[in-house]
Design a protein that fits this description.
By secondary structure, the protein is mainly alpha-helical. Helix content is 72%, strand content 3%.
Length: 530
């Protein structure tokens, strides 16, 4: 199986390199662009098949053990090794990454932004496949310096996806994105070097087995502060989240899907994979502060969304979902901060659930914007006499899917969004030894309030976007955009891109053991068998 994992990482990298070959897709620019997009779909589809093969061959009975392992010397002078492997923590994220990238490539065949000044589809394909390489590598590597390298590879392609294919204010949004993440990464690299040099190894599996032995309490605190800062920016944890709403609002639909569905998970994954097992004393000391920031993020994200959904606020749907991600990722960070198997399992489950649900939400909002010409809630409502955008009447299947994704995001029992948040709060009810139970009970109560606020703004979105009179007041003649009283419902390419996300949201919601059975043994081992 190690050959499958190596092939999974090499395939999109080689595919990205192939897009640089002159005239590979033909001399005619238009034809070459279409062929390049098809090539991207084929390569990302093959990567998804490899990820499924890897998952099918994974030994679920020993999910705490690294499997498909490759461990060879790479830079002997620095002690850096090409060390790859997957366990029950990383495998779901690998499959999620491969799935979302393929769906984005499939969607781009019909909905890639174009027009004067827009780069060629070949450039888009190359960047998308390079982005996939970095994302997959982050979840597969087991060396700290390789982890940092993969963690950074994603920045450049995502920057250009936002800056060149994005919408209004794409330049400033892309610049803010890369400056924030680079600053966090610089501090994170110092933390990696401190950890590796003090421990005498950069091997993440060895560090996990030692469980902090040989590292002083002060060193562990410094490691958690430095590495945690870089991870918190990517997570995104309040107050390091301010790059996210602008990036999501400006990014193209596929960029938003991958940004929310995968890139945010790289930060929280780093907390679980690196900090929990390598610096347990430092995490115990700083966990209450992490939990406090997480809860503030939950409440802040929910209140920001309530402000955006209010009539007259000129709230953008993409911006609203971006702020909702701040709240949802707050639950992930709260689960990690409990330092319990229950809480950490909940965090990992919420990671995957958020990727599925928010990826679907960004696809759907992109479809709404394509049809109405805007994602501004006030403009959507005003065009129908203030009664709502009437998506149920104009495109009932699209309206039904949007309502489904909204109730999944608010944590309706039976759907994927429910279990992660529930387990994170259960972990807060009885945190790990050494943590203040009264403080975490307060955090749990505030997180519970956040779930109520989440339901409030998401149901308001459904009311304003899906409900209303489809025969309401038409748009003024010559208005931009001029909204039609009816338009196409869900198209075949949209069905192909969205159906897997809907199905997996249902499956993981009704059968949570499919993920928890994988992660629990690995989490227990990372926490020192507690």
């Amino acid at each position: 199986m190690n050959a499958v994992l190596i092939a999974l990482l090499l395939l999109p990298l080689l595919g990205s390199a192939a897009t640089l070959v002159p005239a590979l897709f033909g001399a005619d620019e238009h034809t070459a662009g279409r062929r390049a997009l098809g090539f991207g779909a084929v390569v990302s589809g093959a990567a998804l098949i490899l990820a499924v093969v890897l998952a099918a061959g994974f030994d679920r009975g020993h999910s705490a053990r690294m499997q498909a392992v490759t461990d060879v010397a790479w830079i002997p002078a620095l002690g850096v090794r090409l060390h790859l492997g997957v366990d029950g923590i990383s495998l779901p994220l690998l499959v999620l990454t491969a799935l979302l990238t393929f769906l984005c490539a499939l969607y781009s065949l019909r909905r890639l932004p174009d027009g004067p000044g827009t780069p060629s589809p070949r450039a888009y394909t190359g960047l998308l496949l390079l982005l996939e390489t970095g994302m997959l590598g982050t979840f597969a590597v087991l060396d700290l310096l390789l982890f940092f390298l993969a963690f950074e590879v994603v920045l450049v392609p995502m920057y250009f996806l936002i800056a060149r294919w994005g919408g209004a204010n794409r330049g400033p949004a892309a610049t803010r994105f890369i400056l924030y993440t680079l600053l966090g990464s610089a501090v994170m690299l110092l933390g990696f070097l401190l950890l590796g040099l003090k421990a005498g190894t950069f091997d993440m599996t060895v560090l996990a087995q030692r469980h902090g032995n040989g590292l002083s309490h002060t060193t562990q605190i410094l490691v958690v502060l430095a590495i945690g800062l870089g991870l918190a920016v990517k997570a995104p944890m309040w107050p390091f989240h301010s790059w996210l709403p602008d990036a999501h609002t400006a990014a193209p639909t596929t960029g938003s899907v991958l940004l929310a569905g995968v890139l945010l998970k790289m930060g929280t994954y780093g907390f679980v994979r690196v900090l929990l097992p390598s610096a347990p004393q430092g995490m115990t000391t700083l966990a209450p502060y992490l939990a406090a920031f997480a809860v503030v993020g939950i409440l802040y994200g929910s209140l920001a969304c309530l402000a955006l959904v209010r009539p007259g606020a000129k709230g953008d749907l993409k911006r609203l979902i971006a702020y909702s991600s701040v709240g949802h990722m707050g639950f992930v960070l709260l689960g990690i901060a409990t330092l319990t198997p229950t809480g950490v399992n909940g965090a990992l489950f919420a990671n995957v659930a958020h990727g599925l649900i928010t990826g679907l939400l960004f696809f759907l909002v992109g479809a709404v914007k394509d049809r109405y010409g805007t994602a501004d809630l006030d403009r959507l409502t005003a065009t129908t006499g203030g009664t709502g955008a009437a998506l149920y009447g104009r495109a009932p299947r699209l309206g039904g899917l949007l309502a489904f994704a909204a109730v999944a995001s608010l944590g309706l029992p039976g759907l994927a969004g429910f279990w992660g948040e529930l387990l994170a709060m259960f972990g807060s009810f009885q945190p790990a030894a050494g943590l203040s139970r009264p403080a975490f009970l307060v955090f749990m109560a505030l997180a519970g309030l956040g779930t109520l606020l989440t339901a409030g703004y998401l149901l308001s979105v459904v009311r304003r976007v899906c409900m209303g009179d489809p025969a309401g007041t038409p748009a003024p003649v010559g208005a931009t955009p001029a909204l039609r009283p009816s338009f196409a419902d869900v198209q075949s390419y949209e069905v192909a891109a969205w159906t897997p996300l809907v199905a997996l949201t249902l499956i993981t919601g009704l059968w949570p053991a499919v993920l928890l059975g994988l992660s629990n043994p690995a989490v227990t081992a990372l926490l020192g068998g507690s």
